Amino acid sequence: MKAPRFINKFLAVKKLTAVGLQSADQGYVLSYCTLELKGKEVKLSDSADELSLETFVQKTDAAIPLVLVIDGKGVIHRRISMNETDDLGSILHKTLPNISADDFYVSHTEPFNGHAIASVCRRQLLNEAVQFLTEKKRDVIGATLGPFCIQAVLSLINNGYNADVNIPGAQIRFTDGFVSEYVPGNQDVKSFSVSGETIAPSRIVAFAAAFASLLGIMYVPLSNLPLAAWRDQYAQKKLYKTGLVSAACFLFVVLLINFFLLTHFNEKKSDLEARINVNQSSISQIDTLKKELAEKEAIVSKTRLLQTSRTSFYADRIASMVPFNVKLTCINVYPRETNGAEESESSYRFKPGEIEIQGKCKYSIDVNDWINNMRSFSWIKEIKLEHYNPSNTDKGSDFVIRVML
Known about the structure:
This protein has about 400 residues and is of the alpha+beta class. The chain has helices spanning about 5-10, 55-60, 90-95, 125-135, 155, 205-215, 225-280, 280-305, 310-320, 365-375, and strands spanning about 15-25, 25-40, 40-50, 65-70, 75-80, 105-110, 115-120, 140-145, 165, 170-175, 180-185, 190-195, 195-200, 325-335, 355-360, 380-390, 395-405. The chain is rod-shaped.
């Protein structure tokens, strides 16, 4: 499955160190160059030579991936005929007849006019260096044999593609940009100028390998080395580390926000509790006043003290309809409650919304007509004859009418 573009961009190598390993009788002598890709520019950030592997490990950053260039004793370079049908086995046999691919690593330059430069070394020679660096927690993502990676920077160190490039211990002839000849031996070497950077002759091979690997134009990788597995392992390691750091940062931010929120709400809680303790007596007093206010509002509502008084209007309208044969003796608006017994003079309760009418009449039909006539008033909810006492005297019968407003 193809990884998303942003993943590939993230996993791309932005900084890389190429190590030129010269095999000698007493181990390796190395030079290295560290290049960094900044935007569209490649910057040389560090370089050195005449170092041992132990010194190199101590001197350089362990987070930067490595590309190895093996040369010197034990590495054979030979010009061979080569065509498109040649495979790894045939290249090996043309270089060194009767050798096994299981014991040797091989690389070759791009064929030119039917020939190429093949490079061969025993696997042990490279494996020892890779094993040592791996034990020191270094990530090796590429390797090649010989100095032929200079082809990647030929246009930067020479005005054309036809040149004889002298390096320590050999001369490489380029024709039309391809490696056409390799001549071993001591040569007259000079420093190289690459885009304003002065590169020592002993470091030019490492510089070229770093440049080619950083831009993905390595011309002579080892044919039978698990380079893809190395690169995948480095990419997974980088992704894992970045994911771990991102997760830790996210968790830290969440915990930090949680800490600030908890501190804020704890302070707010403490402040509110202090205010409540200070104002507890005021709160109790407010509750008491609210209770008293509710009781008084209930009394006022029940007695209708806040409503507009219309007692004179009610009395006038009732009196205006008194029949000729009825004698009105009393109109009691909001009469006093007695509950069947006389109460003390100091205690008074009234019946709001009621009117009590008392009078005398000779004929009961006159009272009934009067009651029916008063039902036409919209402000009367209910009217009834509460008491009627017939009498045979000329003074008439007593009656009581109850009106509900």
